[in-house]
Amino acid sequence: MRKDHRLLLLALVLAAAHQAVFITWTSDDSFISYRYAENWASGKGLVFNTGERVEGFSNFLWVAVLAFFRLLGISGLVASKLISFAASQILIILMFKKASAGDGRRFAAAAPALSLAFSASLAYFSMAGLESVFYTCLLFLAVVLNGQYEQKPAPGSFYALCAVLLAVSLTRPEGIMFFGLSAAYHFIKKIAFKKGIRLKSMLAGWAGAAAVMAIFFFLRVQNYSEILPNTFFAKPRGTFAEGTGSPLFSNFGGAFFTGSFLMLVLVAAVAVPSFLKKHPYPLLIVAGQIFFMSYAGDWMALGRFFFPVLPIVLDLCFELLRPRENFKPNTAAARVLKLLPSALFVIFAAFNLAQTSAALKNADVYPYLVMESSRLAEIGKYLKREFPAGTLIATRRQGAIPYYSGMNSVDLLGLTDRTVARNIYHAAEIANPDGLNADYILGRRPGVIILFSSTSRNDGLPYDKSRPRDRLLSFELLIYMRAIESGYSLRETLPVGKDEKALFLSLNPSQPSSF
């Protein structure tokens, strides 16, 4: 075995070992996709609640893949982890091969792949059940295919690129942006610089992908009466911005230890015109994701919305730090530059191992307790055991609890509820939108309302451990007060994590049971 292939094997093994640390972790959000996929596969339709047509997911192709595996008898939980693990290994191989094509030296070729093997984001999202690694692999594959096409333009390679970008577009809503950016990039190159295949062939590739997207949007409108997913309305701009920060700042902050600090390195590329000229396409993809992160996304720890471009950023950073011909060997500048890739590798690995350690140490503290959702799964099983199957529940955590309970659910955050989502989206135009949503939710008379009080949040009221309701978020406190006025009683208060409790309000309180 060649020495460089041994480094690739090492990267694959290290990544697998890192992922094994998170093998029991499943993101609460993943169970939303599982529920849609399993309802679809069982013939109930692409729905969250039976009889309610609401597109409460934003990863169609991922849900479709999980539904296919469910038809084969493989649960979404198992399938999502297997697919993501395979995608992570493919991603590392792609990174290695791309770097090897540009530099024959062993460490220079293996550095991006070895670095990614230490990524806490890759380790977690490979096991979390989300579409993140699948999507990231597709996006990096598009960059690789684009490079191959630009080196040797041919209709076949261009159509392959269009097909991958179509898959990207069907996996995440913002993926359509990358298809549009890619089309504009190649159209401009063809018109302005006469580079690429015939324009007629380009238009054929774009038209084929556009036809598939048109069918997708048509079916979406037919099924949900909306051209956009419900999550667009439930998560208006700035929904997840922390404090007074912008969404971009929040997204970068959540991903700092796992890779967003690399943007500081990449900014240095502005000072190297030849670098910009050599890598316009991957830089365009990174710029597109940053634009998206400045509008929306999620500040979730481990950088869910920075991760899709992390492999591209890693690859570009190591490319930027490669020794240049204009540096004479054995000079001080050449020796310093030679050390920089190793330094970047060590810093990245150290930061990410520290993030992994923090996640494991704080598994039962928000936000990690919803990233490792075993306690929420226990609540779902508790509901299934203690309440009739037809009970309607209401809660803001729409993953493991509805999934394991098997019950229809009213979403306090509106992700899977159209009325709540529209009130959130039009909050600036509505008098007292929280009150309107509280009245709507209570008007549906859920059999159980589950609220969460926590000491690990910076918002809400001062915490009194003897009064868990005093640490509810403002909207949940409003629900609590109005529910009590409407005849609900506090049935039980149960621990969820180190600093969080679940409050169960019921119309028919009974003797508290074990949990």
Describe this structure in words.
With 515 residues, the chain is mainly alpha-helical. It folds into two domains: 3-361, no CATH class; 368-506, no CATH class. Helices cover 60% and strands 6% of the residues. The chain contains 24 helices and five strands. It has helices at residues 3-20, 30-41, 60-71, 76-102, 106-117, 120-127, 132-151, 155-171, 175-193, 199-224, 230-234, 247-254, 256-260, 262-266, 273-278, 280-295, 310-320, 332-361, 368-371, 374-386, 400-405, 418-425, 433-443, 474-485; strands at 393-395, 409-411, 448-454, 489-497, 500-506. It has a five-stranded mixed β-sheet, with helices on both faces. Helix 1 runs antiparallel to helix 4, helix 2 packs across helix 3 (60-71) and helix 7 (132-151) packs antiparallel against helix 8. It starts with a helix and ends in a 9-residue tail after the last strand. 46% of the residues are buried.
Structural class: mainly alpha
Overall outline: globular
How many β strands by DSSP?
5
Q: Helical amount among residues, as a percent range? A: 55-70%
Radius of gyration: 24 Å
* Mean pLDDT metric: 89
Could you say how many structural domains there are in total? 2
Would you list the SSEs in sequence order as H and E? HHHHHHHHHHHHHHHHHHHHEHEHHEHEE
- Strands of the widest sheet, in order across it, are 2-1-3-5-4
In the predicted model, the low-confidence regions spanning at least 5 consecutive residues are 457-463, 511-515
Distance between the termini: 54 Å
Strand content: 5-15%
How many helices does DSSP assign? 24
Q: What does the largest sheet look like?
A: 5 strands, mixed
